[in-house]
Design a protein that fits this description.
The complex is a heterodimer of chains A (294) and B (307). By secondary structure, chain A is of the alpha/beta class. Chain A folds into 2 domains: 201 residues, Rossmann fold, CATH 3.40.50.300; 65 residues, no CATH class. Helix content of chain A is 31%, strand content 21%. Chain A has 8 helices and 10 strands. In chain A, the strands form 2 sheets. In chain A, strands 6-7-8-3-9-10 form a 6-stranded mixed sheet, sandwiched between helices. In chain A, a hairpin with a 2-residue loop joins strand 4 and strand 5. In chain A, helix 2 packs across helix 3 and helix 2 runs parallel beside helix 4. Chain A is globular and about 55 Å long. The N terminus of chain A is likely disordered. By secondary structure, chain B is mostly helical. Chain B has 2 domains: 53 residues; 213 residues, MetI-like (MetI-like fold). Helices cover 81% and strands 1% of the residues of chain B. Chain B has 10 helices and 2 strands, in the order H-E-E-H-H-H-H-H-H-H-H-H. The radius of gyration of chain B is 25 Å and the shape is globular. Classes of the chains: A alpha/beta (294), B mainly alpha (307).
């Protein structure tokens, strides 16, 4: 999808933001997190949004999902106002947000509420098998590793067959090896289903490996989207091989240089250690991890 | 716990404190004269407890004997073709009977409080409007003493339970309802708090999946509020048990409260010792109830944290 769509008239984007702004009331007044954001996700496209922590990535994703309503501008799905959240826009939350009292199967079944019980169970088993968790379906999230939990979260998001998938730093909490494995997994799932996907990440390599197009989010407050970087690399992409690919290295250098220039501009960056703005993201709750229960 | 010093602290220190308490008590008891004799010491109280149990056994023997005699007479009457009417044994309730009555009353009141408090708390927690509406009423009624509720409850119960053969004794119902009125609040407030502090991400999941209201309550809200609800129930049972004694005293429900009151009115040489037996009983049962609820609370919290 790196090139223009084949038809004469461009189809409406699967999901689009038009002049979106979002403000939050804080003790010191209003904080403008996002300002004047324009974005279009073409059908079947995988776009990565790359940004620093605290730049408003999760706010942006919440607006894309319909969980937050913008203070200005509009959210459109297929050219029509998008409205509230729904199963056609699947979300994988940064913290996975699995329900700890339900089994992996129970968590996925929750997303299939409309089906009759037997069918729901069969379908949930099928989806869990697709993400390689057939054996772990009766385990609760607390008994699963971080990577397995992430797969359950993906399975739950995929279960209602959404047309659009929104991933909020889905691999952020994982170790490097698990991360690489799941990146392959995401690429495989996307190449099979060709859903429209927004991937939010802070990892440039991950973005290049997976995305058709990369859009940087400038640091907040008043964050907005920068120019798109098209990723013309052929698929399937192999991480090891990419490291020697001149096109990959060029793109990576460009992106990194752009992000570093942005970082230099953020408030407080001049004095060496940058002042960290308060992040608007929820940290992963380590207390829920099973290893802590020694 | 293997460490002898820890062991000493866990078991030695409480034992020492208890021994010290008994010593001080018996010293003080020997010196204090009241209008109905000396303040009883630990041994005297222990003796009173034994005599209460002995009375219980005696009463049971009498009751059994009575039942046996009735059975014989009934057989005779039936053999002679005379009409027969069963008679109940008109014995006094013994101390264990009174404990049983108190437990029955407190659990009835506690059940009423839970059945009202948990659903109302769920409503308050899920709807900011309901919470805003009910909060002033909750704050107004929460601090009211059981002694203020009881007369109102007694009069209402008398007015409403007017049938000849009511399901429950009026005194029992009044005490239970007073317990419910006073122990309702911790459950209500804690449930509302637990529901209001459900993980935002989990609620977002519910929104994305468009879960229906009942499913959201059953699968997300209640499981995550369960530890809060149980800690509220535990507080409620504690309050209820405290309130019960006062309620029974005034309502004359034949439980521990009435026992204390009757002893007080009696004014015999055994009065103080027997009341002290009641004090220890009330304390021990309260402690046991709290332990029971703590165990339940831990069981459900455990499920949430690891699960």
């Amino acid at each position: 999808m790196a090139s223009a769509p084949p038809e004469g008239s461009a189809p409406a984007p699967a999901l689009a933001l038009r002049g979106v702004a979002k403000r939050f009331a804080t003790r010191g007044g209003t904080l403008e997190v996002l300002a004047d954001v324009d974005f279009a996700l073409q059908p079947g496209e995988l776009v990565a949004i790359v940004g620093f922590s605290g730049s408003g990535k999760t706010t942006l994703l919440s607006i894309l999902a319909g969980l937050l309503q913008p203070d200005a501008g509009a959210v459109e799905m297929d050219g029509a106002p998008a409205g509230g959240p729904g199963p056609e826009r699947g979300v994988v939350f940064q913290s996975y947000a699995l329900l700890p009292w339900l089994s992996a199967l129970g968590n996925v079944e929750l997303a299939l509420g409309a089906l009759p019980r037997a069918e729901r169970r069969a379908r949930a088993c099928e989806i869990l098998a697709q993400v390689g968790l057939a054996a772990a379906r009766d385990k609760r999230p607390g008994e699963l590793s971080g990577g397995m939990r992430q797969r359950v979260a993906v399975a739950r998001a995929l279960a209602p067959a959404p047309r659009i998938l929104l991933l909020d730093e889905p691999l952020g909490a994982l170790d490097a090896l698990t991360r690489a494995g799941l990146q392959r997994e995401i690429a495989r799932v996307w190449e099979r289903d060709r859903k429209s996907v927004v991937l939010i990440t802070n990892d440039v390599d991950e973005a290049i490996l997976l995305a058709d197009r990369i859009v940087p989010l400038t640091p907040g407050p008043g964050a907005t989207l920068g120019p798109s970087f098209r990723v013309g690399l052929p698929r399937p992409r192999d991480r090891a091989a990419l490291n020697h690919d001149p096109a990959f290295r060029k793109l990576r250098n460009e992106l990194t240089a752009y992000l570093l220039a942005l970082a230099a501009r953020r408030p407080g960056a001049a004095g060496g250690a940058p002042r960290t703005p308060l992040p608007d993201v929820q940290p992963i709750d380590l207390a829920r991890l099973p290893r802590r229960r020694a | 716990m293997r460490d002898p010093r820890t062991l000493l602290r866990t078991f030695g220190a409480p034992a020492l404190a208890f021994a010290l308490f008994l010593g001080l008590w018996s010293q003080a008891a020997a010196r204090i004269e009241t209008s109905i004799g000396a303040l009883p010491g630990p041994l005297h109280v222990f003796g009173a407890a034994r005599s209460l149990l002995a009375e219980h056994r005696e009463e049971r023997t009498k009751a059994a004997e009575f039942a046996r005699r009735m059975e014989e007479r009934r057989a005779e009457a039936l053999a002679a073709g005379e009409p027969w009417r069963d008679r109940r044994y008109a014995g006094r309730p013994t101390y264990p009977d009174q404990i049983a009555t108190s437990l029955k009353t407190v659990f009835t009141g506690f059940a009423i409080a839970s059945l009202v408090g948990v659903p109302l708390g769920l409503l308050c927690g899920t709807s900011a409007t309901v919470y805003a509406a009910l909060n002033p009423l909750i704050q107004l009624f929460r601090p009211v003493s059981p002694l203020a509720w009881l007369p109102i409850v007694m009069i209402l119960v008398s007015a409403l339970a007017s049938s000849q053969d009511p399901w429950f004794e009026k005194s029992f119902l009044s005490s239970a309802i007073t317990v419910a009125l006073c122990s309702l609040w911790p459950t209500l407030v804690n449930t509302a708090l637990g529901v209001a502090s459900v993980d935002r991400d989990h609620l977002n999941v519910a929104r994305v999946l468009r879960l229906s209201w009942p499913v959201r309550i059953r699968k997300i809200v209640v499981p995550s509020a369960l530890p809060w609800i149980f800690s509220g129930l535990r507080l409620s049972l504690g309050v209820g048990w405290m309130v019960l004694i006062a309620a029974e005293m005034l309502a004359q429900n034949p439980g521990l409260g009435k026992f204390v009151w009757d002893m007080f009115q009696n004014g015999s040489s055994d009065t103080l010792a027997r009341i002290m037996v009641a004090v220890f009983t009330i304390g021990a049962i309260g402690f046991a109830l709290d332990r029971l609820m703590t165990a339940l609370q831990r069981a459900v919290s455990h499920g949430v944290r690891t699960a």
